[in-house]
Design goal:
heterodimer, A: 297 residues, mainly alpha, MetI-like fold, 2 domains, 73% helix, globular, B: 268 residues, 0% strand
Chain lengths: 297, 268
């Protein structure tokens, strides 16, 4: 936008100067992401390896090695793994049922629209919806207790727990999986199925030996995205549990608010640990996506 | 046909399970939001929420933030995506990668960086004043919506021949401002609008950034109400779901007028 319109002089030197000037067009964007994406992130990464006087240290990272912090990471990882895995399996089942399962064609479009809404319906209101449904006086809890005599509480179920958060996160994980995997399922060519059945393969064999290996990279890749998605979720967890369940993002939230760890640089290390874990998950995603695209053209 | 039947049954079972999972919480929150008056269904909780001056304040604050974020996002993303497609196509994968980073780096980490980087004792003390903090919050929202906005606009640009349009406009004497504002933007308006409505939905419900920057936004208000009241939060959840649904419905409606649908789904 800020680049000069036309470069005066039709001479060869002018064309030599063209290239550097083109870069000016993305200068506003570059400036924005540098100031509000890269620098804040780098500040955290650098801060994680700095002592209060500014020198390099590994003490902050070592400081994470306490039972309460490791426990917070561990339960975060468990919730993210569980909600990503179940989200993948259930989302895949629903998408496969609609795309390949012989259901009427008109279901597809409303399902995708609904998935678009549900995958965006996260945060604080989602927590309220689940409290009203599975909370102590929620719809399902009360129904099970009064009509069927099943007391979820006696069975050890509590919404403010590992399973409670996992079930709640699945509300946006499953639709996200449906949205991502439906195009991949569309990419499975009819010829492959026909070729397999001409060779005498059963439907199960086709899925196990043809479709699944082709879809595997996108499945695993989407898994990584869902993992990062729930690992960084703060709002739902806070609205659901207050601060009674210590997971990594809630611990970081409390640390930023009031330095509960009593050491600002430990906060950097805590945040760095979160970027580190989601980056690994997404590096896997990017790598596998590049591989799966070869097949789904 | 007999062999098809079990497969179709299985498909229906998977679909019904999925539907039950999504519809039960929606029924649950709706039913709960109507139960404020003992024994009968009523809209008391909604009346309480809508009459709360705090609701009106925080809601309009977030709506304003969303509008500013959309304007800023469009001004930032449309020229960039256009320029990259026109002049720097080799950079496209890298730019796209950068725009996806906000999905990888948790929002809480980004805002933590903001607080440390732009505090009162820094070179750019944005958090020193309310206006500065609002500006910082808007930049944060623009960062969060970048993956959706950029993808939507870039998909929109793919469906038009920007090189020919640009040359045609240039040969008629148009400058870059005219090209972008009167040629490119109208042509990708549908894509821009779908990006805008996702941005609107994100900003309106956002909690983490607004809470940590201490701004009176709708997200922190909802959380506060949830910690102190019983029925009003469910009413708020119904309202929030209605807004999300409205945004997505408008995107779908708008996309119908597009030459090619450019729905900003969350895939990468």
């Amino acid at each position: 936008m800020t680049t000069p319109t036309d470069l005066t002089g039709p001479l060869p030197p002018a064309s030599r100067w063209r290239l550097p000037l083109h870069w000016l067009g993305i200068l506003p964007f570059a400036l924005f992401v540098t100031l509000f994406l890269f620098m804040p992130t780098m500040k955290i990464v650098v801060g994680a390896f700095q002592s209060p006087d500014g020198s390099f240290t590994l003490a902050n990272i070592r400081g994470l090695n306490t039972p309460s912090i490791l426990g917070a990471y561990w339960i975060s990882i468990k919730i993210s793994v569980a909600s990503a895995s179940l989200g993948c399996v259930i989302g895949f089942a629903v998408a496969a049922a609609v795309v390949r399962g012989g259901l009427p064609g008109w279901i597809r479009s409303p399902l995708l629209t609904f998935s678009g809404v549900a995958s965006n319906f996260a945060g604080v209101p989602l927590a309220f919806a689940f409290l009203a449904t599975l909370g102590p006086v929620g719809l399902i809890t009360v129904f099970l207790r009064t009509e069927l005599g099943i007391d979820l509480r006696l069975l050890g179920f509590n919404l403010l727990s590992f399973w409670g958060l996992t079930i709640t996160y699945l509300f946006f994980q499953i639709p996200l999986m449906i949205l991502i995997i439906t195009p991949a399922l569309d990419g499975l060519k009819r010829e492959w199925k026909e070729a397999a059945s001409v060779l005498g393969a059963t439907s199960f064999q086709y899925w196990r030996m043809v479709a699944f290996p082709i879809l595997f990279p996108s499945l695993l890749g989407t898994w990584a995205l869902l993992f990062a998605n729930s690992f960084g979720a703060v709002a739902t967890a806070i609205a659901l549990t207050g601060s009674s369940l210590s997971i990594a993002p809630i611990l970081l939230f409390a640390q930023i608010r009031g330095d509960v760890l009593g050491d600002p640089h430990l906060g950097y290390a805590l945040a760095f640990g979160m970027i580190f874990i989601t980056s690994i998950a997404n590096a896997i995603y990017i790598w596998l996506r590049a591989r799966s695209e070869r097949w789904l053209k | 046909m007999t062999r098809l039947l079990p497969k179709r049954l299985w498909s229906w079972a998977a679909l019904l399970f999925g539907l039950a999972y999504f519809i039960l919480p929606l029924i649950g929150m709706t039913e709960f939001s109507l139960k404020m008056r003992r024994g009968v269904y009523s809209f008391d909780a909604y009346v309480k929420v809508l009459e709360d001056p705090k609701f009106q304040e925080t809601f309009s604050f977030s709506v304003f933030m969303a509008l500013f974020t959309i304007v800023f996002g469009v001004l930032l993303v449309v020229p960039t995506a256009y320029w990259v497609r026109l002049k720097l196509p080799r950079l496209r994968p890298y730019i796209e990668f950068v725009t996806l980073l906000p999905l990888v780096i948790p929002a809480i980490v980004i805002v933590f960086g903001y607080i440390r980087l732009y505090n009162t004792s820094s070179w750019l003390p944005l958090t020193g004043t309310a206006a500065g903090t609002n500006l910082l919050l808007m930049f944060g929202y623009a960062t969060l919506s970048l993956p959706y906005m950029y993808r939507a606009v870039d998909t929109g640009l793919r469906t038009i021949d920007i090189a020919t349009l640009t040359e045609a406009a240039q040969s008629l004497g148009a400058g870059w401002g005219t090209i972008l504002g009167r040629i490119i933007l109208p042509n990708v308006l549908v894509a821009v609008l779908s990006g805008a409505f996702v941005t609107f939905a994100i900003v309106l419900g956002e909690f983490t950034m607004a809470a940590l920057l201490n701004r009176p936004a709708f997200g922190p208000y909802m959380q506060l109400l949830g910690a102190n009241r019983a029925y009003e939060p469910a009413a708020l959840a119904v309202i929030a779901f209605g807004i999300t649904w409205g945004c997505i419905a408008i995107i779908q409606l708008v996309a119908r007028f597009a030459p090619k649908p450019a729905t900003p789904v969350k895939d990468l």
